[in-house]
Amino acid sequence: VALNDEELIELGWQWITKTPNSTGSWWYAVRDWLVTAACHDEKSLLLAVAWLQQETSSNSWYIVWKRLIESEKIFNDNRQSLLRIEQKLLIQVFDHESWQFVCEDLLEILPDKESNALLQNGKLWLEKANDHHSWIYVWEVLFVKSPENHQWLQQKGRQWLLQTTFDHSSWPHMWQQLLNSLPKDEELLALGQKWL
Questions:
Q1: In sequence order, what are the residues at sequence separation of 6 or more whose Cβ sits closer than 8 angstroms to the Cβ of residue 100?
Q2: Is a pLDDT exceeding 60 seen at residue 186?
Q3: Angle at alpha carbon of residue 102, lines to 101 and 108, rounded to 5°
Q4: CA–CA dist 69, 58 (Å, integer)
Q5: Cβ pair 149, 121 in contact under 8 A
Q6: Greatest C-alpha distance within the chain
Q7: pLDDT band at 183 (very low <50, low <70, confident <90, very high)
């Protein structure tokens, strides 16, 4: 007998609630259930929040996070809890695959007065995560969202170019971004010549 989606979601919920969370596959089952189920009621929301707090190193973290913030009601009703979880990820897990996406999402949904702390976290991240493959993307987000930090970001971008090998896939893109904002910069023009 084939089960429909609602029956599978309910079956998953029953397994999750009856199985101890010390069971090896429990957190994976929770992740899969959260990605499938709509987090619209209190039980699934509490489970999602618990999962996000527990599993900050999971590659699926962003998928579950996105499900929660896509609902304006869920986000607004649970704003403080979700922002605390976000802060934990953005401050403590600098090498997380999803760092850039969480940062971008929050900058889109937070009012300016609340996004200042996030912009500061972004600057801190750029300082600490030079080798992260998303470095240039976080730099771009901050450059767009934080014009008052352009000079500092230009300096960071220049340092990144000088410390990164020419064969890095993001090198020409970073160079072009800086050149767009500093079109007559002789050092950048010379670096571009070297890259060629």
A1: 134, 137, 138, 141
A2: yes
A3: 90
A4: 18
A5: no
A6: 71
A7: very high
